[in-house]
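[Automated response] Your request has been received and processed.

Submitted sequence:
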Amino acid sequence: MHNKNLGRTWKNFAYELRSFFTEWVNGVKANSFEKVRDLIIADQIKHKVPQEVKDHFIDDWSKLNSPYDLVEKLDDYDTLMSTSEVNNCVRYYNKQNSFKDDPTVTTNKKKNCTVLHIIREVSQNASTARILGTFQGTVCC
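Generated structure:
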């Protein structure tokens, strides 16, 4: 987003915006109303995308100027991540639902709970957790 500098007139600011817009539109070859419309819509969508998703598409991000292609990639990414999270999530079960013969499960007698060990990675900076389903049991921390 371009900002007006102190000491500059609004007329100069409008000229700068017009120049930047023209360079942007010409640079991506948006030479029709439909292409300019799609470019603006894609740009608005990009402003709402979380940084970690932008980082995933770092090599293609500047080339994703069609809102149709962009949302298809974003929806595919969301689907992939939600599937991955379900398969790699940490689930906590209470003692009644423990799997006694499964080596990936341990029971903590002191805390009266069982933990299924399928942790792939834990961030040290994690401050929130998202529940990916409804599980009966006790969370052991």
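Summary generated for your ticket: The first strand starts at residue 92 and ends at 93. Residues 67-88 form the longest helix (22 residues).
If you did not submit this request, please reply to this message.
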